[in-house]
Design a protein that fits this description.
The protein has 181 residues and is α/β, with parallel strands linked by helices. The longest helix has 32 residues. The protein is 49% helix and 14% strand. Keywords: GTPase activation, Leucine-rich repeat, Repeat.
């Protein structure tokens, strides 16, 4: 039962707006992560979500399942995911973050993706996916202890460009506000 049972209970919480769930080091696996994600997809009013899923053996399938479910959480404005040590690899990180572009209200995103066997392809995909999150104002990505290499650094450059654009947008908004005074 485990995480899937918890997911079954959560799917009935349709008015939930804030959730912090700590399942660190519980071996929930891919099925548990996907089941949890499916339940969260029903929480359409969810605006603040923190998931602590580090060291749970969720793999690429679990990360992708979680990402697929999060695309339905269009009211999310703050999202923090701790997914270190889950061997999600390139495929998992792509499946996880590609759905975030659907979260049109997402303004604060923190991703802890260390020690997940993410390579150059995953880092590039991460950069491309984050570039589609046009309303981000705060972004933190932790990719320590992965196999990104020189080629993957180009994907990280995309992340840095996204951050630069975000800062420029905030500056332009501030200028617009000042000019209205």
């Amino acid at each position: 039962m485990g995480a899937s049972g918890l997911g079954s209970a959560l799917k009935n919480c349709i008015n939930l707006s804030n959730l912090t769930l700590d399942l660190y080091n519980n071996q929930i696996g891919a099925m548990g992560a996907s089941g949890l994600g499916s339940a969260l997809a029903n929480c359409i009013k969810l605006s603040n979500l923190k998931l602590y899923l580090s060291n749970n053996q969720i793999g690429a399938l679990g990360a992708s399942g979680l990402g697929s479910a999060l695309k339905n959480c269009i009211n999310l404005s703050n999202l923090t995911l701790y997914i270190e040590g889950n061997q999600i690899g390139d495929e998992g990180v792509s499946g996880l973050v590609s759905a975030l572009a659907n979260c049109i209200n997402l303004s604060n995103l923190t991703l802890y993706l260390g020690d997940n066997q993410i390579g150059a392809t995953g880092a590039s995909g991460l950069g491309s996916a984050l570039a589609k999150c046009i309303n981000l104002s705060n972004l933190k990505v932790d990719l320590e202890q992965n196999q990104i290499g020189d080629e993957g650094s180009l994907g990280l450059v995309t992340i840095k460009l996204v951050l630069w654009v975000l800062k420029a947008q905030v500056l332009l908004q501030q200028i617009a506000l000042i000019s209205q005074i």
